[in-house]
Amino acid sequence: MTLVPPSLEARQRRALARAFSWGLQAEVRPVDRRHWRVPSIREPGLLYDVALTTRDGREHLACSCPAGVADMPCAHAAAVWLWRTEQMTGGSVIGVRPG
Fold it and tell me: Which of 71, 80, 93 has the alpha carbon at shortest distance from 52?
């Protein structure tokens, strides 16, 4: 079953592929129903905050990392998306195609 909407941009798909390849969804730490912390890959001990917000009437994951602050897709928000998908389906994501 495909869970990634076909409408995702290429850079969003790349962020999902990076998060998956780094295993970041296993590192997601829930704070509450709408906030998570995800570790930096490059800076050990640094945690980024990811928040579930609404943009244009749709759910949006906003991250405190430099890419997220610049409103670009990032692996941290993608990791939360993967984690949430696994939580909601009770399954495991076994692969992500970047393109």
Answer: 80
Tell me the backbone φ, ψ of residue 51, rounded to 5 degrees: -125, 140
Three-state DSSP at 87 gives: helix
- What gap in Å lies between CA 70 and CA 68, rounded to an integer? 5
Task: Give the residue extent of every domain in the chain.
Answer: 29-82
Query: What span, in angstroms and rounded, lies between the C-alpha atoms of 20 and 25?
Result: 7
At 7-37, the pLDDT tens digits run: 568 888 899 989 999 999 999 999 999 999 9
Query: CA-to-CA distance for 76 and 67, rounded, in angstroms?
Result: 10
CB 99 within 8 A of CB 8: no
The pTM of the full predicted model, rounded to 2 decimals, is 0.86
